[in-house]
Amino acid sequence: MATNVILARMGEVTLKGLNRGRFESQLMGNLRYRLRQFGKLNIFQSQSRIWIEAKEEGNPYFENDEAAKELMIAVTQVFGIVSVSLARKFEGDINDIDSNAKEYVASYLEQNPSFKTFKVECKRGNKSFPMNSPMICEEVGYFILENFKDLSVDVHNPDFVLNVEVRDYNYVYAGKMMAHRGLPVGTAGKGMLLLSGGIDSPVAGFMMASRGMPIDAVYFHSYPYTSDQAKQKVIDLAKIVSRFSGRMNLYIVDFTKIQLDMVKNSPHDMLTIVMRRVMLQIAQKLAQKTGSKCLITGESLGQVASQTLEAIAITNEVVDMPILRPLIGMDKEATVQISRDIGAFETSILPFEDCCTIFVAKHPKTHPKHTDIEAAEKNLDIEAMVKQGVEENLEVIEI
Ligand code: ATP
Ligand code: MG
Predict the structure, then answer these.
(1) pLDDT in tens, 203-259
(2) How far is the CA of 195 from the centre of ligand 2 (A)?
(3) Which H/E stretch holds residue 183?
(4) Residue to substitute in 192, 199, 201 for testing ligand 1 pocket (most ligand atoms within 8 angstroms of CB)
(5) CATH topology for 3-180?
(6) Which of 67, 122, 285, 373 is the most exposed place for a label (fewest CB within 10 A)?
C-alpha cells in the first residue's frame, strides 16, 4: 500500500560545520511546534533531508494533494527549510514503481495541466534491488510515455522531473514548493519588534526572524485617537509574523496620556522625533525585562521625515541596545513584495490609522539638531513618561 509523505530540504543549516547539530535540532523542534495542528506525525531526518509522515492511518492531510498543500505551506514557513515536495512511499518491485509513478503523475498533472515534458531521475540506495538507476529511469520513463500520450521526454529542460528513489522503501515525487530559507528561529538571541499597523514593521520582524531571531513585539496605542480596530489590526499582524517566528508576546503600551502631554508641551515640528525617542526608551525597558537583546524597527532611510539620517542619529542616542533596521536600504516596492509573500499586505493596508492626525505635524523637522531636541524635551518629564509607559495599563497578549 502506498502512502503520502512530505519531503523537506534544509538550506544554510547544513553549512554550519561544528554548530550543525544545534541548528538542526532547533529546526526539528520548530517544525514539530509549527506542525502540531496537523495530527500525530513522524518527523525525522534521513539523507540530510527531513521526512514528514502521518503516525496514524486516516490523517486527512495525507489523503490527497489538495489537503497536503496546507501542511506543505506550513512547512515552508519554518525558517531553515528551502523547499518541500509531496512524495509517495511504497514497497515492492519495478511494477509497483511503475504503477505508483503513474498514479503520482496523473494527480500531479491535474495540479499542473500545462506540463508537457518530463524526465526521470533515479537514486538507488538499496543495492540489492535487481535493476540499477539508469535501467529504472528508462523503464519508468517508457511506462509514463505509454500511459500519458500528451507527455514527451525532454532531458535538458523538462517541465517537471519525476524523481524515483529506491531505498528502505520506494519513493516517487515531482515538483517543489519553495520555502523561505533562512536560519531556524531560536538560533539567535531575541529581539523586540516595534510593531505598528503599517506595511514595514511586520516585514522587518519577518526578516529578523529569518536570521534565527525569536521576536516579541510592542505596539504603542493611543486610544481613542487610535481605534480598537487599529489595535486589532496590529494583533492580526503579530499573528501573521508569528506563523514564521513562532510564539511571541505582544506588549500594548497605553500611549494616550504620554502623547497628549507631548502635544501640549513640545513644539509640533519636533513631535515625531520626541515621540520616537520615548517609544524606543519604553521598548528598551520592556526588552530588558523580557530577555530581548535588541530593538527592531521598520524604518527605511529617507522614507519619511523621521527617517533621515539626522533623525535616526538623534533617536538612536537614547538607547544602548542595538536597533536593527533590516529595511534601511530597501526600496518600498521590494518591501511590499515581501509583505505580499508573507500574507501581511492585505491586513497592513486596512484603513485604520496607527497614528492620529493631531499627533503628526504638517511640517516636521527633517534635519533636527541637538539644540532642537533639547528645546523640545525641556518641558517634558521624559523619565516619568517612560516609567508610565512601562508600568501603567500595560497589556500583554500571547500570540
Ligand atoms: P510602518 O509601515 O511599519 O508603520 P512607517 O513607514 O509607517 O512604518 P513610521 O510611522 O515612521 O514609518 O514608523 C517607523 C517605525 O517605527 C515603524 O516601522 C515601527 O517599527 C515603529 N512604529 C511607529 N509607530 C509605532 C507604534 N504605534 N507602535 C509601535 N511601533 C511603531
Ligand atoms: Mg506607520
Answers:
(1) 999 999 999 999 999 999 999 888 899 999 999 999 999 999 999 999 999 999 999
(2) 9
(3) none
(4) 201
(5) VC0802-like (3.30.2130)
(6) 67
Band (140; pLDDT cuts 50, 70, 90): very high
The minimum-distance atom of ligand 1 relative to the CA of 298 is 18
pTM above 0.85, yes or no: yes
Q: Where are the domains of the chain?
A: 3-180, 191-398
Q: Which atom of ligand 1 is nearest to the CA of 202?
A: 3
CB 113 within 8 A of CB 36: no
| Ligand 1 center to 195 CA (angstroms) | 7
* Diameter over CA atoms, the chain: 86
Residue 335: phi, psi to the nearest 5?
-65, -45
- Are 225 and 359 within 8 A, CB to CB? yes
Average pLDDT in the chain: 92
CATH class of 191-398: alpha beta
Nearest atom of ligand 1 to the alpha carbon of 222: 27
**Beta bridge partners of residue 5, listed in sequence order:** 87
CA of 319 to the centre of ligand 1 (A): 17
